[in-house]
Amino acid sequence: MAHPPNKSHGRISIAASAAPRDLMSGVSRLQGAWLARVITLFPDVFPGVLGASLTGKALSDGLWRLETTDLRLFGDGKHRNVDDTPAGGGAGMVLRADVMGKAIRHVQQNADHPLVFLSPRGKPFDQAMAQRFAAAPGLTLISGRFEGLDQRVIDHFEIEEVSLGDFVMTGGEIAAQAVIDATVRLLPGVIGNSASLEEESFSNGLLEHPQYTRPAVWEDREIPSVLTSGNHQEVSRWRQEEAERLTRDRRPDLWKARSED
């Protein structure tokens, strides 16, 4: 029985095909590249912004790989239905357990990647989570749609629910791209200057300090004199103080957590 096809993006790609997966196993793949898999009803929106800038270059250079799987291919019946009305009644539709279960088993075969469902009720995505995902060999993301996913699938596969924040989107595709972007940039070789990763927001529990560049004066506003003084010790002290001030003012939750450590 032929398995539904995957669509792959990257330096070495696999075109959409109805061929069984085992017949495609001989296709050359880059060894050791971090792999992002996405189960979605809209595979054509990928790679999207992931194909641009540093993540796009890293993708074409083979530092990571991206595969999308069309959930519709696992749908039920003539019309390949993927959703149904909520048990117990209510508005909207829910992604079916049997359909998603087949898709997950297909994607996760011979893989032990973290399995994540993008959901507004999930744990807030943060830098520590991105670092954890980057340390894994890859990541499988499920893009939510409609009212959500049958809870039995989440429980059975022990899926981790992740949210970008306290708001609701029409689907998880944009969220999936955001999670992948934040993770890929942490992979070795993606960011040329590793020091920039150490100084950016959340890397040490603080928001990043303000940044300035030329011209020295713009609209009668000058760059803080300490930054042009040449005194690196004073620059470091100023940046630390500004990072702490911004964190106290804008993210008291982060400041409280830092104080409790």
Characterise the protein shown here.
It is built from eight helices and ten strands. It has helices spanning about 55-60, 95-110, 125-135, 150-155, 175-185, 195-200, 230-250, 250-260, and strands spanning about 5-10, 35-40, 65-70, 85, 95, 115-125, 140-145, 160-165, 215-220, 220. A six-stranded mixed beta sheet has the order 1-3-2-7-6-8, with helices on both faces. A two-stranded antiparallel ribbon has the order 4-5. Strand 2, helix 1 and strand 3 (about 65-70) form a beta-alpha-beta unit. The protein is elongated.
Write the layout of secondary structure elements.
Layout: E1 6-9, E2 34-40, H1 53-60, E3 64-70, E4 83-84, E5 94-95, H2 97-108, E6 115-124, H3 127-135, E7 138-143, H4 151-156, E8 160-163, H5 173-184, H6 194-199, E9 217-218, E10 221-222, H7 232-250, H8 252-260
Helix pairs in contact: 3-5, 7-8
Can you give keywords for this protein?
261 residues, alpha/beta, Alpha/beta knot, Trp Operon Repressor, Chain A, 2 domains, 6-stranded mixed sheet, 8 helices, 31% helix, 18% strand
Q: Give the C-level CATH assignment of the largest domain.
A: Alpha Beta
How many structural units, i.e. domains? Answer: 2
What is the helix content?
A: 25-40%
Distance between the termini: 55 Å
Reported by name, the CATH topology of the largest domain is Alpha/beta knot
Adjacency order of strands in the biggest sheet: 1-3-2-7-6-8
